[in-house]
Amino acid sequence: MSAYINNYELLCNAGDVESLMQAIYAKESALVIDNTYLDDASAGLGIMEYDNIFNVLERITQQILDKSNLDNFHNTLLIMGSSVGGMQECEDIFYRDMSFKNIDPMRYSIHVLSDYLQEKFAFYDSRAISTACTSSANALLLAKRLIDVEAYDNVLVIGADGLCRSTVLGFHALGVLSNKRCTPFDTDRNGMNVAEAVGALLIQNVKVKDSVELKGVGASSDAYHMTNPDPEATGAIRSMRDAIADAGIEIDDIDYVNAHGTATLANDRVESLAVEKLFGKKVFVSSTKAITGHTLGAAGAIEAIVSCEAIRNSMIPPQAGLKNQENKNINVAKESVKMDVSYVISNSFAFGGNNTSLVFGACR
Amino acid sequence: MKLYIKEYSSYRSDEDAVDVKKELKQKYKYDTRRQDTFIHLAVYGAKLLQEKIEIRADDELYVTTGVGNIEVVQKTMTNMHNNNQSIKLFDFLNSVGNTTSYYVATSLGLHGKNIFQISDNFTYLNSLISLYASIANSGKDAILCALDFAGSSDEVTKRVLGVKRDTQLVDSVNYQKFSLDGDSAIAEIEFEAKSYSLSEVKAFISQSAKPLLASQRCRDLECDKESKFFETMASYAINSSIKKSQNLIYIDCFEERYKILKLKSLR
Predict the structure, then answer these.
(1) Mapping DSSP to helix (H, G, I), strand (E, B) and coil, where does residue A254 land?
(2) With contacts defined as CB-CB under 8 Å, which chain A residues touch B118?
(3) Domain check: are B104 and B174 in the same one?
(4) Do B169 and B253 sit in the same domain of this protein?
């Protein structure tokens, strides 16, 4: 059974899908330098305009439903990919009250985002995946597999993470936050920008006009180090290779690698090596985190939408912020490239060497 | 959907008088530093499983839990507030779901797919469905770790889980190694994504052979239920039945919908 991405919506620091793609193609970063969370330092952050993440989720889910061929979600599985779930609101209440007693239990744990939407829209089933920065990529992976075995006809995958103190301070403690707009794959990059976003994709077993196929999925585990990737890139290569094999295509068929590209020293070095070993200079590569920042658990969904847009627009996203490319043996797209885009692979990598790669294919 | 169980391991705090951290250090020579009790539980269960069956590097790993580790979330927030916006690095890392998966993977030498799934509805059964969907394609074996930890935050955990305040929560970790291949299997398990209404499940029960066990969430069903609670109770119930070489029908409930697991002992 094939899995088709039939519509999608997002909200991030650059706005909705259309605004984000305009920013990406124009190489206009939507990141800001901010000192809200850090007393002693500023950090580049991706901040979206919204009142409350639960309201954003509800609005985007309704938009997906309105654009779909469904009357409701009663026959749809919801898979939420989130790193911190309800942490943002939980932190605000704790900082206000210095107590956990007023925290709404329905808005607390990692899975509360899916619980909230299940209650609002009466999904047939729901579940949450929390594998940090691969959360929504793994949600997409599972969506494809569940459609493959005909467990569900419709799966709504949502990636969502709101900015909160724990994540900004946590990445600061790891020493990987940049105090400027991040510059993936650049020699002078000095770290990542934490960001927030909500991205949703409706995946179905039927094709509609403008469908993009979720063609193949692959995943691996480095189990090498808690926070650093395997320097030989074996896990990253395996997840990409498995996704391409699962798609039933050849390595040479890939037109564009939408990289994880966080702009940390370790990630970009290892991901570049993986791309170099697998593709050489044959495919275009870029990381759209230079525009959005690292939206953590939402990143897989946001970058899946960017990948679908690259296919639909026949336009490869360029690399923003790049001045001196570190690894010259890969083909980082310096400018937008107008071309038929048949297959895109999108990478998501997370703590512990949790690697997921997704292949998207044009339905022509 | 049908899977074969090759081996299992079980631990629950109210039945097994084991100091998990001490056992990990002394018996398994495992370095427990930088980890918390939630992770220790997961690794302990993994070590128990590893004693009974060969683990292959490409086995897939699924870790599932009802509410995750609320204790570390609260500890992180409290420390952050008290220590002038500074966070303890390993509290932050341990609050992330796949940190637990990472430690399990490294302790078992796993390099395959690695998923951390969390929900407070049909937690174990939905993870089984995810696992089945994956290995039906890959043909590999998969390990499922079902993990619940009440810790010092059990009052909050009860509110999140929606159980009564006088319910006794239990820490527990239960593993099974699953395969599509029935060769040398000790049990087979059948399940489906479909859920049933109360009348449908009552009709099913009236025609089913015993033993039959239901989750505490099945308040409208009159059948045997565990008095204590942890979200992934289904996983323990399955292991317990395998140990007794018994078949089992297990029923779980969420918002007036019911799902059914059927276990057949092959011993």
Answers:
(1) coil
(2) 109-111, 127-130
(3) yes
(4) no
* B198 and B99 fall within a common domain: no
pLDDT at residue A233 in the model = 96
Average pLDDT, chain A: 95
- To test the contact with chain A by mutation, choose from B38, B113, B167 the residue with the greatest count of A C-beta atoms within 10 A, namely B113
The boundaries of the domain holding residue B214 are 188-265
**B115 shares its domain with B136:** yes
Residues B34 and B100 sit within 8 Å (Cβ to Cβ): no
Whether residue A105 has a cis bond before it, omega within 30° of 0: no
pLDDT band at A97 (very low <50, low <70, confident <90, very high): confident
**A90, A182, A294, A308: which is the annotated catalytic residue?**
A294
Confidence of residue B121 (pLDDT cuts 50, 70, 90): confident
- Chain A residues with CB under 8 Å of B106 CB are 223
Number of Cα atoms under 13 Å in the Cβ half of residue B31: 4
Which of A133, A164, A182, A308 is the catalytic position?
A133
Testing the interface with A: which of B94, B111, B257 to mutate, by most A Cβ within 10 A?
Answer: B111
Cβ count within 10 A of residue A72 = 11
Side chain identity, residue A303? E
- Between residues A308 and B267, which one has the greater pLDDT? A308
Residue B152 has pLDDT above 80, yes or no: no
pLDDT at B106 over 90: yes
B137 to chain A nearest CA, in Å?
7
Tally the domains of chain B: 2
Segment among A92-101, A169-178, B247-256 with least mean pLDDT: A92-101
Strands A197-204, A76-81: parallel, antiparallel or unpaired by DSSP?
A: unpaired
Q: Residue A33 belongs to what H/E stretch?
A: strand A32-34
A82 burial (CB, 10 Å; 0-12 / 13-18 / 19+) is buried
pTM (2 d.p.): 0.96
Query: Are B1 and B134 in contact, with CB atoms under 8 Å apart?
Result: no
Same domain, B54 and B146: yes
Q: In angstroms, rounded to a whole number, what is the distance separating the alpha carbons of residues A134 and B97?
A: 11
Whole-angstrom distance, CA of residue B65 vs CA of residue B68? 6
pLDDT at A11 over 80: yes
Give the relative orientation of helices A87-97 and A165-173 as an angle to the nearest 10 degrees: 100
Residues B20 and B46 in one domain: yes
Domain boundary among B187, B215, B248: B187
Based on the fold, state whether residues B173 and B222 are members of the same structural domain. Answer: no
Same domain? B256 vs B175 = no
Q: CATH number for the domain including B92?
A: 3.40.47.10
Are residues A115 and A158 in contact, defined by beta-carbon separation less than 8 angstroms?
A: no
Task: Provide the 3-class DSSP secondary structure of residue A227.
Answer: coil
How confident is the model at residue A108, as a pLDDT? 63
Contacts of A131 in chain B (CB under 8 A): 97-98, 101, 114-116
Q: Report the alpha-carbon distance of residue A296 to residue B189 in Å, rounded.
A: 36
Written as one letter, the residue type at B106 is T
pLDDT given for residue B98 in this prediction: 86
- Quote the minimal CA–CA distance from A256 to chain B in Å: 24
Distance CA A242, CA A302 (A): 22
Q: Concatenated DSSP letters for A15-78? A: BSHHHHHHHHHHT----EEE-SS-SS--EEEE----S-HHHHHHHHHHHHHHHSS-S-STTEEE
